[in-house]
Amino acid sequence: MVLPTSTLWDPLDVIHSGPVQETADAEAALAVLFDEARKECRGEGIPFTRARKDAVTFHFKASEEFIGDITPMSIAGWFHRELKILTKEGKLVPFAVNNIQWCVLCEMCTDLANSVPGRYVILKARQFGMSTLVQGLILFFCAREPGTAGTTIAHKKDATLQLTRMLRRYIRNLKHGPHLRKMNEYEIEWEHPWDCVIGLDTAENKEAKRSFTNKLIHASELAFWPYASVTRLGLMQTIAEVPGTFVFEESTANGVGGVFYNNYWAAKQGTSDFKALFYAWHEFPNYALEVGSAESEEIMGGLSSEERQGVERWSWSAGQILWRRKMISDRCDGDVLQFHQEYPSYDREAFLVSGRPVFDQHLLEERRAFAESQPLVFQGFLGYDGKEDGSEH
C-alpha cells in the first residue's frame, strides 16, 4: 500500500477545506430548499418545524450542490466541519482525518467513481482510527441520502457500546440534524421524512442484524468474532451487490486461520471481490517519539538484528525504534511476538505469532522472499523408491 505524500494528503488542507459553494450562494440555495419544504409540509397538513429546517440543512451541507462530488477531500472536509471526536486527552475536537484514514477514503472514492461496490478487508495495527472513520462514513451517507441504513457489528459488547457512544457524540455535536425517533445502545433512527437507521450489535449474538437492508456494513475486529462464519454469512445477505454500497471488514490479526485470515488472503490473491488493504505501524506518523541527535546516534548504534532489518527495509527512524521498544516493553509484556501481531510491519508478520513456532519466523520469511525473487534455474521431481514397509529395494 502506497501511503499519500504531502501533495496528496495534508492535515492543514483538510482542516481548512471549505464548502464548494460561496456563503451567499449557499444561503440562497438553502432559502429555496426551505420554501420547498414549507410547501411539502402544507401539503401534508403539518407545521414547518425547526426540526424539519435542521433536517433540510443537515442534508444540504452534505449534498452535491454544497460540497460537490464525493471525493476524499469533500468527505474529509465534511468530517472536520460537522463531526467532533474525543481525543485520548479527553478533549472534544473536530475530526481531521489521518493518513491511514485518507488512504481508505481514496480506495472507497475510487470504487464509487468506477461504479464498483466497495468491499474491503483491512488488516491493520492498533489505534489507527478505522472505527472512527467508518462510523463517520455511515453518518455522512445518512446525511447525504434519506432512508440510508448502516450496520456495525463489533466483536464483543463493550466494543459495541464504545462505538454507540462515538455515534451519539457525533450526533449530539452536529450543528444541524433531523430529530431522532429512537436512540438506544443498539439502534439509532431518525424521524420521517429522513428515515435513516443505524444498527449496532455484538458478534456474541450469532444472528446479529440479519433483518436490515444495508448501504454500509462495518465488521469491526472480525478476527475475534466467536461465530464469524455464521454471523458474517447472515450479515452479507443484507447488502445488495450494487455500486454505492460498502462493506468494511477490519481487524488486527488473531493468528493463522479463521474467517478474517482466509478473507484477507483470498482478497490479496484476487480470488474474491474484496480488496485487501494493509497498513503497517511505521506508516502512521504518530508512532514515533522525539529524540535528540545524541540519543539518535546511540539508538542507531545499538540496533538488534530485527531493528536493523527495519531500518534497511522500511527506513525506520530512531524515534520509531524508540517508540517500538517502549511498546514492546510497556504494552506487550516484553514479548516481541505480541508486538508483531498488534503492530505488524508487513501482513504475513501479523499472523506469524500463532502457535509459537520453533523456527525464527522472520528468518523464514526473509528466505521465502529471497527465494521468490530468484529466477528458476532447475526444475525436477521428488520420487520415492521404497517398499510400503519402508525398506529399500
Can you give a write-up of this model?
There is one protein chain. The chain has 393 residues and is of the alpha/beta class. It folds into 2 domains: 80-279, 3-Layer(aba) Sandwich (Rossmann fold); 288-373, no CATH class. It contains 16 helices and 10 strands. The chain has helices spanning 11-16, 23-44, 50-60, 64-67, 72-82, 99-113, 130-144, 157-172, 228-236, 259-268, 293-301, 305-314, 318-330, 336-342, 347-351, 361-373; strands at 84-86, 92-94, 118-124, 149-154, 180-183, 187-190, 197-202, 216-220, 246-251, 275-279. Strands 5-6-7-4-8-9-3-10 form an 8-stranded mixed sheet, sandwiched between helices. A two-stranded antiparallel ribbon has the order 1-2. A hairpin with a 6-residue loop joins strand 6 (187-190) and strand 7 (197-202). Helix 2 crosses helix 3 (50-60). It is globular, with a radius of gyration of 25 Å.
Strand and helix map with partners:
Layout: H1 11-16, H2 23-44, H3 50-60, H4 64-67, H5 72-82, E1 84-86, E2 92-94, H6 99-113, E3 118-124, H7 130-144, E4 149-154, H8 157-172, E5 180-183, E6 187-190, E7 197-202, E8 216-220, H9 228-236, E9 246-251, H10 259-268, E10 275-279, H11 293-301, H12 305-314, H13 318-330, H14 336-342, H15 347-351, H16 361-373
Parallel strand pairs: 3-9, 3-10, 4-7, 4-8, 8-9
Antiparallel strand pairs: 1-2, 5-6, 6-7
Helix pairs in contact: 2-3, 7-8, 11-13
